Amino acid sequence: MSKFIQITGRDNVAVALEPLRAGETYLGVTLLEDVPAGHKFALRDIPQNGNIIKYAFPIGHATRDIAAGSWVHTHNVKTNLSGLLEYSYNPHPCAMPVDREATFEGYVREDGRVGIRNEVWIVNTVGCVNGTAKALEAMAQAAYGDRVDGIHCFVHPYGCSQLGEDHRNTQKLLAAMVRHPNAGAVLVLSLGCENNNVTEFKKVLGDYNPERVKFLVTQDCEDEIEAGMKLLDELTAYAARARRQSVPASELVIGLKCGGSDGLSGITANPLLGATSDLLARHGGTTLLTEVPEMFGAETILMDRCRDRATFDKAVALINDFKAYFIRHGQEVYENPSPGNKAGGITTLEDKSLGCTQKGGTAEVRDVLKYCEPVREKGLNLVQGPGNDLCAITALMAAGAQMVLFTTGRGTPVGAPVPTVKVATNTPLAQKKRGWIDFNAGVLVQGATMEETVETFFAKLLRIASGERTQSEIHGYREIAIFKDGVTL
Question: Is residue 281 within 8 Å of residue 363, measured between CB atoms?
Answer without folding.
Answer: yes
